[in-house]
C-alpha cells in the first residue's frame, strides 16, 4: 500500500511541476508539512521526493531543502558571461527582441487563459506599483519591466514557457538592458507608447482575453524594435 501512495504522490508532484503550479527554482514544502497536509507518512513523502530527485526533477540542498530544477537548463549551455558579451551587439539585440515578441505573446496568451485568481491579483498589484514609480534609473526600469513580464510567464501554467523565460531573461539581460539604453538615446526619453502598451497587456489579461493579450504583448516588443530600426 505504501508503494501505491508513494507512486500517487510522485505523480501529483510531477503534475505540479508540469503545470507550473511549482515553479522552476521554487522550494518544495518541507517533507514534514507535506506529510501532515496530505495525511501520508513521512516515509511515503521521503520515497516520492527521493524518486523525483533520482529522475532529475528536483535537487536536495544542504539543510534538507528541496528545490525544483529548471528542466531546460542542462540544454541551455550558454554561460552568463557569453550572454553579456553578445549583449552590446545591435543585431543580436534585435534578435533578442524578436524572440521576446514570440515568447511574451505566448506567455500572455496562456496566462489570460490559465492564471489563477490569486495570480491575477498579484499581476494587478505589480502593474499598479509599476505605474506609480517615477524616478527609477535606467537599470531599475529594465529590471522592473522584466519583473512584470516574468510574472506573466510564471502565471502561464506552461512549463516550457516558464523555464525558457527564466533562462532567457537571465542570460540575455545585458542585451535587454542595452535595448533600453539605445531607445533612450534615440528618443531622448522613455517612449510614451510603452506605458500604454503595458496597460493594454494588463487589461487583456485581467479580462482573460487571450488573443488580445497575445497581440498586445507582441506589439509591445515590436514597437521597441521599430524604434531601434530608425537608429
TrEMBL record:
GO molecular function: DNA binding; DNA-binding transcription factor activity
Stored CDD domains: WHTH_GntR
Stretches of the chain forming a coiled coil according to its record: 113-140
Alphabetical list of Pfam families matching this protein: FCD (PF07729), GntR (PF00392)
Residue ranges occupied by any HTH gntR-type domain in the UniProt entry: 3-71
InterPro entries membership: GntR_C, TF_FadR/GntR_C, Tscrpt_reg_HTH_GntR, WH-like_DNA-bd_sf, WH_DNA-bd_sf
Keywords: Coiled coil, DNA-binding, Repressor, Transcription, Transcription regulation
PANTHER family, A to Z: PYRUVATE DEHYDROGENASE COMPLEX REPRESSOR (PTHR43537:SF34), TRANSCRIPTIONAL REGULATOR, GNTR FAMILY (PTHR43537)
Function: Transcriptional repressor for the pyruvate dehydrogenase complex genes aceEF and lpd.
Protein name in UniProt: Pyruvate dehydrogenase complex repressor
Organism of this sequence: Amphritea opalescens
Amino acid at each position: 500500500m505504501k508503494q501505491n501512495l508513494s507512486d500517487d504522490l510522485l505523480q501529483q508532484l510531477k503534475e505540479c511541476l508540469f503545470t507550473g503550479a511549482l515553479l522552476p527554482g521554487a522550494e518544495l514544502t518541507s517533507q514534514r508539512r507535506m506529510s501532515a497536509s496530505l495525511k501520508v507518512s513521512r516515509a511515503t513523502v521521503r520515497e516520492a521526493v527521493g524518486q523525483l530527485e533520482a529522475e532529475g526533477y528536483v535537487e536536495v540542498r544542504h539543510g534538507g531543502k528541496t528545490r525544483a530544477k529548471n528542466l531546460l537548463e542542462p540544454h541551455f549551455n550558454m554561460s552568463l558571461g557569453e550572454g553579456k558579451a553578445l549583449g552590446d551587439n545591435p543585431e543580436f539585440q534585435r534578435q533578442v527582441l524578436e524572440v521576446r515578441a514570440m515568447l511574451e505573446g505566448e506567455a500572455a496568451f496562456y496566462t489570460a487563459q490559465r492564471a489563477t485568481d490569486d495570480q491575477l491579483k498579484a499581476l494587478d498589484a505589480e502593474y499598479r506599483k509599476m505605474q506609480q514609480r517615477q524616478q527609477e534609473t535606467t537599470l531599475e526600469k529594465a529590471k522592473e519591466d522584466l519583473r512584470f513580464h516574468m510574472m506573466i510567464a510564471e502565471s502561464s501554467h506552461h512549463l516550457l514557457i516558464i523555464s525558457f523565460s527564466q533562462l532567457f531573461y537571465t542570460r540575455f539581460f545585458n542585451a535587454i538592458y542595452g535595448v533600453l539604453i539605445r531607445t533612450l538615446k534615440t528618443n531622448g526619453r522613455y517612449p510614451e507608447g510603452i506605458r500604454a502598451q503595458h496597460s493594454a497587456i494588463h487589461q487583456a489579461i485581467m479580462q482573460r482575453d487571450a488573443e488580445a493579450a497575445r497581440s498586445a504583448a507582441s506589439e509591445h516588443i515590436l514597437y521597441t524594435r521599430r524604434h531601434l530600426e530608425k537608429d
